[in-house]
From TrEMBL:
Protein species of origin: Nitratireductor thuwali
Protein name: Glycine cleavage system transcriptional activator
UniProtKB keywords: DNA-binding, Transcription, Transcription regulation
Family: Belongs to the LysR transcriptional regulatory family.
Domain HTH lysR-type: 7-64
PROSITE patterns (alphabetical): HTH_LYSR (PS50931)
InterPro entries: LysR-type_TF_proteobact-type, LysR_HTH_N, LysR_subst-bd, WH-like_DNA-bd_sf, WH_DNA-bd_sf
Gene designation per UniProt: gcvA_5
Pfam families hit by this protein: HTH_1, LysR_substrate
CDD domains: PBP2_GcdR_TrpI_HvrB_AmpR_like
Length: 302
């Protein structure tokens, strides 16, 4: 049985580190090699491939088109090898870096991530909540949770939950201003984030015309989780995703006066580079979160 030709492992390791750091010196520091040694190993690999893998610039290198095709497969291979080694030892080790939308982080992931950590105690989980889109390679992000519709080029995506929405307010506001008995009653209350198109979608679906210009603009709070905090404090009525505020609704911090939900097609998605689908830690997190969110959504709708 013939074997496939493989390049020298040292050269492949140097390539993977240099591609990840975008810098030969930093790659050398990680691998315990000099910059010159890294450069030599990259040249060895380029000779084997038959084409340049990097464009050399002062203090920085960037991948060529061939390098961009090779880098994800090499990273995936090293990660799978490391995971197989850890599995042989009975553990899944290393780190899992998660970039997540702030609202999903605050209202679901923070409350449930310990369950995943309990399954993989040797896997160090690092989470950053942000509104910007993570750059996977440059920032060392393994998986991300994004709000929106997608698709995102080069990324595999899995729908976690739809971001369906409905107005909510605090019991304090309902007591002081009166509980809204019809959708029209909402217009006499302070509307938080009136420029959010969710308001016009929901109200018009209930036959109520809505002009955001007729409502005094509130401070722009950005993330939905911040708008929810303002609603809980009694500052006005907010339009939120009930699936993310189950605890607040159950504990009486928020009231959803009308049962109907509306949608603009957006949701929360688990995404990661297409070439990393079989990476063991990505697969472990994907399998866990898809099942956990589905169970949560069923319990809310049930």
């Amino acid at each position: 049985m013939s074997t496939l030709p493989l390049p020298p492992l040292t050269a492949v390791r140097a390539f993977e580190a240099a591609a990840r750091h975008g810098n030969f010196t930093k790659a050398g520091e990680e691998l315990g090699m000099t910059q010159a040694a890294v450069s030599y190993q990259i040249k060895v690999l380029e000779d084997r491939v038959g084409t340049p893998l990097f464009v050399r610039r002062p203090r920085q290198v960037t991948l060529t088109e061939t390098g961009q095709r090779l880098a994800p497969a090499v990273s995936d291979a090293f990660e799978r090898l490391a995971a197989a080694y850890a599995d042989a030892r009975g553990t899944m080790e290393g780190s899992l870096n998660i970039s997540t939308a702030q609202t999903f982080a605050a209202n679901w992931l923070v409350e449930n991530l310990d369950k995943f950590q309990a399954l993989y105690p040797a896997l160090s989980v690092r989470m950053e909540s942000t509104q910007r889109l993570a750059a996977f390679e440059e920032e060392g992000v393994d998986v991300a949770i994004r709000g929106g519709v997608g698709p995102w080029p080069g990324l595999a995506r899995h729908l976690l939950m739809m971001a369906d929405f409905s107005p909510m307010l605090s019991p304090r506001l309902a007591e002081s201003a009166g509980m809204p008995n019809s959708p029209e009653d909402l217009l006499r209350l302070t509307i938080l984030e009136p420029g959010d198109n969710w308001w016009s979608i929901w109200l018009e679906a209930h036959g109520v015309a809505f002009d955001a210009r007729k409502h005094e603009p509130s401070a722009e709070l950005g993330a939905q989780s911040m708008v929810a905090r303002a609603a809980i404090a009694g500052r006005g009525v907010a339009i939120l995703t009930p699936a993310l505020y189950r605890v607040e609704l159950e504990n009486g911090l928020l009231i959803q006066p009308f049962p109907r939900l509306c949608s603009d097609g957006s949701g929360y998605w688990l995404v990661y580079p297409e070439g990393r689908a079989n990476a063991p830690k990505v697969k472990a997190f994907r399998d866990w979160i898809l099942k956990a969110v589905a169970e949560d959504v069923r319990s809310v709708s049930g």
